[in-house]
Amino acid sequence: MTSSSDRSPAVDVQGSKSYEIRTYGCQMNVHDSERLAGLLEDAGYVRAPEGSDGDADVVVFNTCAVRENADNRLYGNLGRLAPKKASRPGMQIAVGGCLAQKDRDTIVKKAPWVDVVFGTHNIGKLPVLLERARVQEEAQVEIAESLEAFPSTLPTRRESAYAAWVSISVGCNNTCTFCIVPALRGKEKDRRPGDILAEIEALVGEGVSEITLLGQNVNAYGSDIGDREAFSKLLRACGTIDGLERVRFTSPHPRDFTDDVIAAMAETPNVMPQLHMPLQSGSDTVLKAMRRSYRQDRYLGIIEKVRAAIPHAAITTDIIVGFPGETEEDFEQTLHVVREARFAQAFTFQYSKRPGTPAATMENQIPKQVVQERYERLVALQEEISWEENKKQAGRTLELMVAEGEGRKDGATHRLSGRAPDNRLVHFTKPDQEVRPGDVVTVEVTYAAPHHLLAEGPVLGVRRTRAGDAWEKRTAAAAAKPAGVMLGLPKIGVPAPLPATTGSACGCD
């Protein structure tokens, strides 16, 4: 959003070279890619047209190291670009993100046609590194060991005109045995509350009406500044910002989820009745092996308190199946929690080794066929619960924020899509009156499926908003320009609160 003296100076690019960004992983990476896009445009680059598929002058890979095969995926994609680069003098390839932080010089050794490798702590150096690689005609590998400047001081090319990520912290102080993220993004570092609120106010001034507070462990906010109630105070402060209609956050950790946060959620009108609370396992034995500092009773107690304070809250979660040493009894405890908690949705994952994590070398790795069978049972149970919980929404009148590009079949069904306050996806009949992404419509739910709701009757009301105005203004301004930072994630919400392929922020929760 703003410039900073800590940021590398902009590099002027002759001839308006084009760029493409391919993003893998979590919400944090998606938001980092918005910053990378802002940096490149600040340096004179222009976005390549959607579907360029490697035809840009600069292709940037923003990588993830959470999955076991992340490196295979990266090197496969780099290999496919090698002949294009060989046939196009001046084309550059850059690799950043968590895998770059981890593998460093290995990337250039395996793919010598890569021009720039940069880490999670120095994304602001990308334009300078690209220019240096061009002038010196050799690869530039620069990995900072600690954060050089808080990323929000960098220019940002937001993907949405009406909804935005706002980072409140980076890094993580947890030591979960399945997660490599703290080793790659470092210890938690919090932003000052005044800086966060100033960014939100600036976004609202530009037309944004929904923000998602983002952090690896969002409700641990304050540990770096010595205030245990800092997160609840931040939520309440968001409630005083005129024009800010919706506030969400992801992802909290059960260890740090305190009663003052529940009270702030319940008592702040623009904090939405939605909570993503990672479970990972319902077994106390497995949670201990994961180094998750809570147990089943503590977790279910939080859910009970949230439901008492916010009866209509939609609660979602992350669950890992087949963690090393997980017995059938352990897995049954996970199923028990799922039945008790009645999640609106669960992002379920089969355990996969993360190289460099303690769990990767643990004994009693679970055979693939056992993990698969348990996974299928869990998915079947959660699908049943999701459908039952969605059926309870039938007949309710909801205000939806109209979304951009959420319903893949909307064109064929002549519907539009939007998000309810609790973040449920609702497809609704297109009204005669024009509605734009960011506008708000009132509908009555008529049908429920496991993963979405339908409002098949006429729209009950349309409220044109400043957010819709901002979307219309941006669309008009971009009409003659190339469109689309190439993010390698499906869109679920704008910004996507929970990308369906990744779960919570960086997978560490």
What tags apply to this protein structure?
509 residues, alpha/beta, seven-stranded mixed sheet, six-stranded parallel sheet, disordered N terminus
**Helical proportion, percent range:** 25-40%
Distance between the termini: 28 Å
Across the major sheet, the strand order is: 19-20-17-16-15-18-21
Put simply, the count of helices is: 15
Task: Quickly give the structural class.
Answer: alpha/beta
Shape: globular
Largest pleated sheet: 7 strands, mixed
Structure in a nutshell:
The protein is about 35% helix and about 20% strand.
Write the layout of secondary structure elements.
Elements: E1 18-23, H1 27-42, E2 46-47, E3 58-63, H2 70-87, E4 92-97, H3 98-103, H4 105-110, E5 116-118, H5 126-136, E6 140-142, E7 163-167, E8 169-170, H6 181-185, E9 189-190, H7 193-205, E10 210-214, H8 230-238, E11 246-250, H9 259-267, E12 274-276, H10 284-290, H11 296-309, E13 314-321, H12 328-341, E14 345-350, H13 368-391, E15 397-402, H14 410-413, E16 415-419, E17 425-429, E18 440-444, E19 447-448, E20 453-455, E21 461-463, H15 466-478
Parallel strand pairs: 1-2, 1-3, 3-4, 4-5, 5-6, 7-10, 10-11, 12-13, 13-14, 17-20
Antiparallel strand pairs: 8-9, 15-16, 15-18, 16-17, 18-21, 19-20
Architecture overview:
With 509 residues, the protein is α/β, with parallel strands linked by helices. It has 15 helices and 21 strands. It has helices at 27-42, 70-87, 98-103, 105-110, 126-136, 181-185, 193-205, 230-238, 259-267, 284-290, 296-309, 328-341, 368-391, 410-413, 466-478, and strands at residues 18-23, 46-47, 58-63, 92-97, 116-118, 140-142, 163-167, 169-170, 189-190, 210-214, 246-250, 274-276, 314-321, 345-350, 397-402, 415-419, 425-429, 440-444, 447-448, 453-455, 461-463. Strands 19-20-17-16-15-18-21 form a seven-stranded mixed beta sheet. A six-stranded parallel beta sheet has the order 2-1-3-4-5-6, sandwiched between helices. It has a three-stranded parallel beta sheet with strand order 7-10-11, sandwiched between helices. Helix 12 (328-341) links the parallel strand 13 and strand 14. The longest helix has 24 residues, at 368-391. It is globular and about 65 Å long.
